[in-house]
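Task card 7
Instruction: Convert sequence to structure tokens.
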Amino acid sequence: MARARDFFMSTVAPTAEEFLGDVTNIRRARLAAIVLNHMVDYWFLENQTTFKNKSDVYTELERRCPQFPIIRDVADASKHAELDRRPRKLTSSDQVRMTPGLFEAPFGEGGFAEAMEVIVVLDDQTSCLFAIIVQAALSLWKALLW
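Output:
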């Protein structure tokens, strides 16, 4: 597990922590999703006796962390712009956005000096704060690596 831990410590954790320290930064949000998702490759290489393929790894990650498919979809949508294979939680990179501020929200919904954060609007029209998703995925990898 040395390679997976090294990648996690040198790249994944710092990138995710940079986003968690600035939850208003969409670029950092996307980069966090990308590296959290790339951990699958490292984890799979070091656990091939347990998992036959990466699909099995994703199934196990979702079992342990139901939010992980959102990480995968944000990472894939960031790379491809649009996702056409189903099932997906989101299908477009446009679904990663900022919470609406006072002047962007429909009348009566924006708040003055409201905290802006990166959100993900899922295909079912529910939305979630992306920082919560990143924190869950980060915790998952920490639990698996140590």
